[in-house]
Amino acid sequence: MRAIILAAGEGIRLRPLTTYMPKVMLPVGNKPILEYIIESLHENSIKDITIVVGYKSDKIKQYFGNGSDFGVHIDYVEQKKQLGTAHALYQARIEEEFLLFFGDNIVGEKCVKELLNTKINTIIGAHSNKTSVYGIVENVNGKIKIVRKSWDGEAIAFTGMGHFDGEIFRIIEGKMKEGIYNLPEILNEMNVNLRIANCEWKDAIYPWDLIELNSYSLRRNVRKLAGKIEESTIIGNVEIGENTRIGAGSYIRGNVKIGKNCEIGPNCVIIGDTSIGDGVRIGALSYVENSLIMNDTSIGEGAYLKDSVIGREAWLGVRFTGLSGRTRKIMREEVIDINGGIIVGDGAYIGSSVIIDPGVVVGSNAKIEALKVLKDDVANGERVV
């Protein structure tokens, strides 16, 4: 059995975190989202994988190579223009049966096992109380349909997982001549079967959703303490990487993962479901809770950060405060309710004693001078003085 993974898109709703990296390569639990799918396939003895790439494809190819380091064999095909998910799938057309996955979801190994046991032309739906960008699944006059609409409460979201054979490519080819390029519209023309997932499936639509994915991935933590740890309190399934130093008097509790070559503390508090990438510096007396901090970022002394996502190579000054709470905002003409903290893009510089309100997004390479109070988003490269 072959798996085809669609990984060509940018993930525009996750900007600015996807300015320099495709969505599938955003780290949760210090590993790219795409890696979790590949691990689940490997666990189910599926070794032949085709990945459809497009936006910043070099990042994917450099990390995964031919797949040998992950126990699989990976082929790449390119979607030169990101016209839609059906068009992306068509680039990998084959005659034999295959399993389909969207590369920007975390898919548990049990999901792959369930999909293996379905008939051809079966899609997987999952209970969700969040709007799915892929649509929700409904029974319309006895036929399974995927519709795009908002809803209140729980519904069945289309997960992007499916079991097909070469026939789907002939249908796609015909529909593309009519200007139809997205997979839900193609599937609505077919007689598909629906299997409701009894397994773990997680999707990040907006940047704050990465916190949930991060929490899920950190449940796999195994306590492992490497590096140099001065006298500190460490409770729970904490992983600390090689050549990382934990300063004296620090308190680390929960499902926490700290990468390699980090400098933490002294007297830092890191709690909840928190991942800290490689090469990160967090100054003395700082507090970090339920957050995702990517590689090579620096956070100054006395900082406070909760329920937030910080990109690569960002600089957060001393006494920086990233607040968390409930707010409502409009993103890409969609109204979303947020219960979380802030989002900071790659390479952003935030000066000393800056306070940022919940839900604020600071763009990549933005620069915020000291002593500012931010209540509104800051665009990529913008300067606030």
From TrEMBL:
Gene3D superfamilies: Hexapeptide repeat proteins, Spore Coat Polysaccharide Biosynthesis Protein SpsA, Chain A. It is an enzyme of class 2 (transferase). It holds the Pfam family Hexapep_2. It catalyses: alpha-D-glucosamine 1-phosphate + acetyl-CoA = N-acetyl-alpha-D-glucosamine 1-phosphate + CoA + H(+); N-acetyl-alpha-D-glucosamine 1-phosphate + UTP + H(+) = UDP-N-acetyl-alpha-D-glucosamine + diphosphate. Residues 3-172 form the Nucleotidyl transferase domain. This is Bifunctional protein GlmU. One of its GO terms (molecular function) is glucosamine-1-phosphate N-acetyltransferase activity. Pathway: Nucleotide-sugar biosynthesis; UDP-N-acetyl-alpha-D-glucosamine biosynthesis; UDP-N-acetyl-alpha-D-glucosamine from N-acetyl-alpha-D-glucosamine 1-phosphate: step 1/1; Nucleotide-sugar biosynthesis; UDP-N-acetyl-alpha-D-glucosamine biosynthesis; N-acetyl-alpha-D-glucosamine 1-phosphate from alpha-D-glucosamine 6-phosphate (route II): step 2/2. Coiled coil: none annotated. Its EC number is 2.3.1.157, 2.7.7.23. Keywords: Acyltransferase, Multifunctional enzyme, Nucleotidyltransferase, Transferase. In the N-terminal section; belongs to the N-acetylglucosamine-1-phosphate uridyltransferase family. In the C-terminal section; belongs to the transferase hexapeptide repeat family. It comes from the Archaea. Residues 252-317 form the Mannose-1-phosphate guanyltransferase C-terminal domain. The keyword Transferase applies.
